[in-house]
Amino acid sequence: MPTTGLARGIFRWAAPSVIAEELAGDLWLPLYSSSGRVPDGRRAWFVFNWGWDKQEIILSRPVLDAVSGTSYEAGTNRSLGAWSTRTFLSR
Fold it and tell me: pTM for this structure?
């Protein structure tokens, strides 16, 4: 079984360009992100905090919070509570 560092290295080698990282850069556990497209063509990012502590991310691009409708600029710091998720849409 590979260590976390080795597994991350293998994935970087196999898939060097990760679209999910366009939202907040390279996230480390317990943070995880994934992304996809919604029917209107916008990019959606799903950020998960799989840990017991509050975590922070700094947004790399302008987005819209899919739940609250709040718009955020690049460079904005957003927090995720323990065991929570956030969904962002490209603007």
Answer: 0.75
